[in-house]
């Protein structure tokens, strides 16, 4: 079920809220948890009921494994063995459903073999709920679950499948959600939290429906013609995907946090204006924050972090980001994307040691352009097409700009830059708007993400008055009128 659908907004959400707070009003806390769990399972199973059983098996297994690990001596040999058993089973579980087809295709290409495997459909949200539970097992091993280990199965299950964050995050740790499920006041309706939540949900919905979905045709047009595009078209495609992904995924995260607030649950912030970052390290402290924290705490630091010398630190960064790329999808372009960011981070750490800070605008510009190039590889169908688009963006295939061939700018011809009139440009996104509109819109979005406050910053100024009601109501109405062309969130495929 999609957040940006009529059935979710007008049926599922109101029914779930009414049932939850009605039970809470009568202090039927266990029943309220059970209700929210059942609704969350229905939310997930609405897409494909066959994978609901798969997720439930995963939940029961990890809950019991966490219980057993926490009952043996802390970090003992027995606990270590149990932890590795739990992690390996989870990796086999996700490896089969997410990477089996990729592995077989890679083997067939390398060895010209003909191994056949029926196509395996990727279960929705498997990366999120599997890694959430693997982190839970590690926390149990570290003794961070303490004596209540033993969260009951209903509470633990709700921690994993709470529907706002189930499919595309934020990725939660047990101590970020489970303690909230034991607070009686969270089962009592709060007008303040509901107002904040509804506002944030509406802002996130606007990002998705009014911005991300409307620029997606430019993305598809360019990336579907990787070998035919010109210099401007390549930049239009690269920038369009950069903003489509941002407004789509950050919109989902805002909606998830807003939905959590409606139920008096505070979910962690997942985005903090990442395109304002002035370095790659800063970017990863702002983009998909919960994934960054997960990779740092459960992979980079256990590998040694920066404690074992400079070379080892760079290897740890590269390994962490390669696996982070593979987490996103079963494809070599994701691996290369992760490796590229590992390389970026290594350069970033090396430069910081030189103690020669860049001017802020230069640092931001370099970071933003580096991120755009990486997103091109991330979005491309394969590495070859991604490389073709980047070559065009750099100008290796020639640079064609709008202008009068014999005008004042004709001097640019001596630098290998060709000028053509607008009507002579091969401009693929023309079917979706005028030639100039897309460029001005992308420039406007660049200024938006660089200068304007994000929804969390806006909500610090939130006051439930008529001005806010009119503004949020207007944007929500525009979104509702646009839901006839519902589209999935991009991160659903990961």
Automatic annotation (TrEMBL):
Principal location listed in the UniProt entry: membrane
Location in the cell: Cell membrane
Alphabetically ordered keywords of this record: Acyltransferase, Cell membrane, Membrane, Transferase, Transmembrane, Transmembrane helix
Gene Ontology terms for molecular function: acyltransferase activity
Highest taxon of source: Bacteria
InterPro entries: Ac/AlaTfrase_AlgI/DltB (IPR024194), AlgI (IPR028362), MB_O-acyltransferase (IPR051085), MBOAT_fam (IPR004299)
Pfam families: MBOAT
Membrane topology note: Multi-pass membrane protein
Name the record gives this protein: Membrane bound O-acyl transferase MBOAT family protein
